[in-house]
Design brief:
The protein is α/β, with parallel strands linked by helices. Helices cover 39% and strands 11% of the residues.
Length: 347
């Protein structure tokens, strides 16, 4: 058997696509509770997790990312689920490994922002590092190809995650989440933070989550100019803007808001990006030198397929890519009834 090419080898050959955003998609499907967003679905409905992995790979994702986002010790303790910590993590890793093996895909462990990190508190840092060590250790035990550390809005926390990944001798993809002011919460610019992570040993660095294509793309040129590739960019699939640059800041003036009076996170539907917007982002980010691309919260398989096709791929799901030439009114085939032609006049 020919050994499977690893992440870095694949990046040398061209872009790698990684689908993220499982919690939001499975919440929409009725398997995750919005609020805590704890991935109990891994234990309660593992078939739903495996199916979503398969859908993303079929749509063009080169990577199966284990569903261990928000599966860390503090999150599970907050819900009284600390007894399920290792079982949940290992099961998620095993599901990802199984789907990847059946599809010749890479698979990755996943660690994330703890929402517990406090700058300038060594005791806190020790506990956060311990959380990362647990999850990185389980990923290494289960044979992950690499580990993603994601959605860090403190550079200090991202560095702790990187240390944990390097301690288990796996490649590290570390991505940062940039809030409204365009900086990490401990003051670094995205480019400065990515450069610091690269110098500390991260194999791939970049941005993910929080910002949609329109507000993430302007941050990419400075990173590309100051940081050596491979570089990562995985926006949320929501229409953020200069005035509302994060999906937490989006405000729907026309819809009925939930009791929280905020569109985030359960009333974001009106802001969802089209597949064409995600495809354009992939094309533009790749042109800037970003080779590790994907979609985060709000993304779905049709977004992944559109991004893959924009990068010149034809994944299995492309068999069913849109073909408007055969539409009953929009099409141009002979079978389009005369009464339905010139549909722009009446549709």
């Amino acid at each position: 058997m020919v050994p499977k090419k690893g992440l870095l080898a694949r990046l040398e050959e061209g872009p790698v696509i990684c689908a993220e955003g499982y919690l939001f998609e499975l919440e929409r499907r009725g398997y995750v509770q919005a609020g805590a967003f704890i991935p109990r679905v891994v234990l309660e409905h593992p078939e739903a997790v495996a199916e979503l992995h398969r859908e993303h790979v079929r749509a063009g994702s080169d990577v199966v990312l284990a569903m261990t986002y928000y599966a860390h010790r503090i999150k599970l303790e907050s819900a009284g689920l600390q007894g399920a910590l290792e079982e949940l993590n290992r099961r998620a890793l095993q599901i990802a490994r199984g789907v990847a093996a059946a599809n010749d895909a890479l698979w990755a462990g996943n660690i994330c922002n703890t929402n517990f990190y406090v700058p300038d508190d060594p005791t806190n840092h020790s506990r956060v590092r311990g959380i990362f060590d647990e999850q990185a250790g389980w990923a290494a035990d289960e044979g992950a190809d690499y580990i993603v550390g994601e959605t860090f809005y403190f550079l200090g926390e991202a560095l702790l995650a990187l240390e944990a990944v390097k301690a288990v001798a796996l490649p590290a993809v570390i991505t940062l989440a940039i809030h409204r002011d365009g900086l990490l919460r401990d003051g670094a610019t995205p480019a400065e933070a990515c450069r610091t992570l690269r110098e500390a040993g991260a194999d791939v660095v970049g941005l993910n989550c929080i910002r949609g294509p329109r507000s993430m793309l302007p941050l990419l040129p400075e990173i590309a100019a100051g940081v050596a590739p491979p570089l990562a960019a995985l926006p949320v699939a929501y229409r953020t803007s200069d005035s509302q640059p994060t999906f937490q800041s989006l405000q729907d003036e026309l819809g009925v808001l939930p009791p929280s009076l905020s569109s985030f996170p359960t009333a974001l539907d009106p802001f969802t990006c089209t597949r064409y917007e995600m495809a354009a982002f992939a094309e533009q980010a790749a042109a800037l030198g970003f080779g590790y691309l994907g979609v985060c919260c709000g993304g779905a398989p049709h977004h992944v397929r559109a991004m893959a096709e924009a990068l010149g791929r034809k994944p299995p799901a492309s068999e069913y890519s849109p073909d408007m030439s055969r539409h009953f009114a929009l099409g141009d085939q002979d079978f389009v009834a005369p009464v339905n032609r010139d549909s722009h006049r009446w549709l």
